[in-house]
Amino acid sequence: MTDLHIERDLAVAPDTLFAWVTRTENLLRWWGPEGVHVPDHELDFTRTGPWFSVMENGEGQRFKVSGHVTHVDPPRSVGFTWGWHDDDDRRGHESHVTLSVEASDKGARLILDHRDLADGEAGDNHERGWTSSLRRLEALL
């Protein structure tokens, strides 16, 4: 298994950043790599329970991911499971994401830990995807 760790310092208050990584209306503005949008979702990380999103790229390809929000600890962290669906809507390997927020000299630090990724290409793909998504978030903040 592979783990991914990414940190970003942002010039916003920690509670503001936490709202951007948990509330549906904010998530929909940056969720997914650059060039995708989310036409279908149940994307609410303010409460525990199931979630899913369908990301669509410019060529019309759709990518579904789903999981379960495992914990919400405002304004410090939110955790959720993550599993991609195949073309027959079967959910694959499950990994776990934790988004943590803490105060920093700049304002707030976002710490993304994506654990238990399948070995090999999955880690690289997730790093590219999360890095691109976080660029979108940084541009909004």
From TrEMBL:
Pfam families: AHSA1. It comes from the Bacteria. Coiled coil: none annotated. Residues 12-141 form the Activator of Hsp90 ATPase homologue 1/2-like C-terminal domain. Gene3D superfamilies: 3.30.530.20. Belongs to the AHA1 family. This is SRPBCC domain-containing protein.
